[in-house]
Structure formats: structure tokens, C-alpha cells
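By way of example, what follows is a protein record of this kind.
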Amino acid sequence: MSTVRNNHSLTPLTNGRILVAGGESGGWGVCNTLSTAQRYDPVTGKWLIAASMNVARSLHTATPLRDGKVLVVGGVAREPDCYISPALRSAELYNYPRPATAP
């Protein structure tokens, strides 16, 4: 994985890969909320950079759908100083239309 993150989602995809999306990066007391995503291919053991989400979010849910898309709901978008923000009242249908690339 090219970005160390926490409070992200891990979602199994219909093609056998795993989607890692959102979360936070930074050291203790630093909360940079992420919109970036990566896919892990367990066959090759490689991480691929995937399309970013529209909204940076952490502590969200990500549900795989039968058509291969992922429904991403809620979460928070914390300020860099880690103050808790109100819950996000949004959802997005995550699709990875462009081919993933190696980091």
C-alpha cells in the first residue's frame, strides 16, 4: 500500500481484489482525511492505485454490490487537528472506471 492509513474501509470486490478506500493518514494528533483508494490483487500480491472517491471520508461503510460497484456511506471528514466533525450525510456509488495503475 502506498499510503499508510487508518479508519479506512476494506471491501472485497467481485473480481477477487480488495478495495481500500478513504481513512486518515498522519502521525499522532494529525488527521488528514483521505479520498484516495487502492486495490489489492491477492493473486499478484500487488497494490494498484484506483480512482479516488468524490468525498474524503473516514469511519465510513463500504458495501460491495452485485454489479461490482461499491456503495460508500457516511463517515466523518476530520479537521487536520483531529477535532471530531459532524457525521457526513452523504453517500456515493464508487466505481473504478479507469484501469488501476501500480504506485
Summary: Residues 9-94 form one domain. Residues 16 and 41 are 7 Å apart (CA to CA).
